[in-house]
Design brief:
289 residues; Nucleotidyltransferase, domain 5; five-stranded mixed beta sheet; 10 strands; 15 helices; alpha/beta; 20% strand; single chain
């Protein structure tokens, strides 16, 4: 049995694959970011998601997750996986490698994440060789859901948005004044998710000229900080993954075309592509034996 995971802070997508009969099943559990859960909690999550027999048969685990960029955080996850699957060989990696493998497979490329947050990396077909510098939702995350939310809210509350957009916003969020907005931003546990929560409003009005400019400005800022230098240096095609890339695909493609950036894949969720990547890798290993 092979177990593949793509984990964020909110949820984890799993594929359990029996490579002997080529049967697979999809599962979902809570997020397993090692900043918020310990090894024991990770083990208990697996035990409540899979049967004891399934976990005992797992031989390899490929876990990609938010918060898994350091050795210490990777060890927390690896220890938890081993507690649940004592026979398994584990590989714990950052979500940028998930993006690279899901988007590029074994070909070189620039892999970008545009979801609640944003980031990018350069992938040589085997490993990530350079990463973008992500400053998080306060100083960075250009092009992301929370960046769109920040730009929208600033335009609404400074009255830079057109009157019809401001009126539509008031109808959608009648109880949100500046005082409550600041309270949410400074007191909520996940302000980046709160900001990204305004993306559906942006999407609902994406045909409006003001909103279209806001979206494309956000993408242009992402290109400036996360793509241009990599693209100039490597000339690799650019790929995108995440809810914002997927839901705003026409605007994203239009912006890429405007800046003459060679682009290829745009996907929403990586788990199926990661499954196909590891299928190919195991089939290649079996053929080499």
């Amino acid at each position: 049995m092979i177990l593949i995971a793509d984990s964020g802070s909110t949820k984890t997508d799993w594929v359990l694959w029996n490579k002997h009969n080529n049967q697979s099943s999809n599962h979902q559990s809570k997020g397993l970011n090692p900043f918020f859960v310990d090894s024991e909690e990770i083990a208990e999550t697996l035990k409540s998601t899979f049967t004891e027999d399934e976990l005992y048969q797992v031989e390899n685990i490929y876990f990609y997750g938010s918060g898994c960029g350091s050795q210490s955080s990777q060890k927390i996850v690896s220890d938890g996986l081993t507690l649940a699957c004592p026979k398994a060989i584990t590989e714990v990696s950052h979500d940028l490698l998930a993006a690279a493998r899901a988007l590029c497979g074994t070909k070189p490329g620039i892999a970008c994440i545009l979801g609640t947050g944003s980031n990018s990396c350069v992938y040589d077909g085997e490993k990530v060789i350079e990463e973008g510098v992500s400053f998080g939702y306060i100083l960075g995350d250009e092009g992301s859901g929370n960046h769109l939310g920040r730009k929208l809210l600033k335009a609404i509350f400074t009255k830079k948005a057109p009157e019809h957009i401001i009126e539509a916003f008031k109808l959608s969020y009648p109880h949100l004044d500046l005082s409550k907005l600041l309270q949410h931003l400074y007191q909520l546990a996940s302000p980046s998710k709160f900001l990204a929560g305004f993306s559906p409003f942006v999407k609902a009005h994406h045909h409006d000229a003001f909103m279209r400019d806001l979206i494309e400005e956000s993408f242009a800022e992402f290109f400036e900080f996360f793509i241009f230098d990599f693209y100039k240096k490597y000339k690799y095609p650019v790929h995108f993954m995440g809810s914002i890339a997927w839901n705003y695909k026409p605007e994203l493609i239009n912006s890429l075309t405007k800046y003459e950036i060679n682009h290829e894949n745009v996907i929403h969720n990586p788990i199926q592509h990661l499954f196909e990547y590891h299928q190919d890798q195991h089939h290649s290993l079996d053929n080499d034996k």
